[in-house]
């Protein structure tokens, strides 16, 4: 059985590709792990995992990527272990209230990593969104309703697919920016990617 490493973009695993001397490509089979680049967002992620996730082949999915952070006490470039993740927009607006898909009786929007693997990182709750949050009113609404620490565009989709296939899942995110009105000049994508890759290289190296 192997680990499937999953990321949205190749850029987020640039040093990982170099370290393990991986060929270009969105699905790479290495000796001790496979690597899947899904594309950005929950639809691309679900489609890609639908094609490649196979419980007879993988006993662990390691989802890695950068993320936005709601908590200013967490430094840019820090890594967190996401143990719960919520599809933030999946449901219905009911005036000023929000009804989740569970409230509507159509399924689940809240997923967990139940992995026992100790990765030595602080745990955090995340939300998964189609639209990167960028206005005060929307951000305050998300904090009030869901109290998330981080935000990504894929995490809950990976947890969902792993739950469907009964495969253990870890989601490690590196904080590239704070969730605030958009100002990409303040994002520290390079630092976040470097720290994420250092961690992923060590984690996958230790598995061997
Ligand atoms: O501009 C670049 O150099 C660059 C290099 C690598 C990746 C990116 C991305 O923008 C990746 C998109 C990816 O990032 C996640 N993300 C990061 N911050 C947030 C956020 O505040 N809210 C939601 N998602 C965020 C997301 O998972 C995307 O897949 C750029």
Automatic annotation (TrEMBL):
<comment type="pathway">
    <text>Quinol/quinone metabolism; menaquinone biosynthesis.</text>
</comment>
<dbReference type="GO" id="GO:0019284">
    <property type="term" value="P:L-methionine salvage from S-adenosylmethionine"/>
</dbReference>
<dbReference type="GO" id="GO:0009116">
    <property type="term" value="P:nucleoside metabolic process"/>
</dbReference>
<comment type="similarity">
    <text>Belongs to the PNP/UDP phosphorylase family. Futalosine hydrolase subfamily.</text>
</comment>
<dbReference type="InterPro" id="IPR019963">
    <property type="entry name" value="FL_hydrolase_MqnB"/>
</dbReference>
<protein>
    <recommendedName>
        <fullName>Futalosine hydrolase</fullName>
        <ecNumber>3.2.2.26</ecNumber>
    </recommendedName>
</protein>
<keyword id="KW-0474">Menaquinone biosynthesis</keyword>
<dbReference type="GO" id="GO:0008930">
    <property type="term" value="F:methylthioadenosine nucleosidase activity"/>
</dbReference>
<dbReference type="InterPro" id="IPR035994">
    <property type="entry name" value="Nucleoside_phosphorylase_sf"/>
</dbReference>
<comment type="function">
    <text>Catalyzes the hydrolysis of futalosine (FL) to dehypoxanthine futalosine (DHFL) and hypoxanthine, a step in the biosynthesis of menaquinone (MK, vitamin K2).</text>
</comment>
<dbReference type="GO" id="GO:0009234">
    <property type="term" value="P:menaquinone biosynthetic process"/>
</dbReference>
<dbReference type="GO" id="GO:0008782">
    <property type="term" value="F:adenosylhomocysteine nucleosidase activity"/>
</dbReference>
<keyword id="KW-0378">Hydrolase</keyword>
<dbReference type="GO" id="GO:0005829">
    <property type="term" value="C:cytosol"/>
</dbReference>
């Amino acid at each position: 059985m192997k680990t499937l490493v999953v990321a949205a973009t190749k850029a987020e695993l640039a040093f990982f590709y170099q370290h393990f001397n991986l060929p270009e490509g969105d699905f790479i089979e290495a000796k001790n792990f496979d690597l899947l680049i899904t594309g950005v967002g929950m639809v691309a992620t679900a489609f890609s995992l639908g094609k490649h996730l196979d419980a007879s082949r993988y006993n662990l999915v390691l989802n890695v990527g950068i993320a936005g952070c709601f908590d200013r006490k967490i430094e840019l470039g820090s890594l967190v272990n996401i143990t719960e993740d919520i599809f933030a927009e999946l449901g219905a607006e009911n005036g000023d209230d929000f009804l989740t898909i569970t409230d509507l009786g159509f399924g689940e929007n809240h997923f967990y990593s139940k992995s026992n693997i100790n990765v030595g990182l602080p745990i955090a709750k995340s939300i998964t969104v189609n639209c990167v949050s960028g206005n005060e009113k929307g951000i305050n609404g998300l904090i009030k309703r869901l109290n998330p620490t981080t935000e990504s565009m894929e995490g809950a989709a990976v947890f969902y697919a792993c739950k469907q296939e009964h495969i253990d899942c870890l989601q490690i995110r590196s904080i590239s920016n704070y969730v605030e009105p958009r100002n990409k000049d303040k994002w520290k994508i390079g630092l976040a990617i470097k720290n994420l890759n250092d961690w992923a290289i060590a984690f996958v190296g230790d598995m061997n």
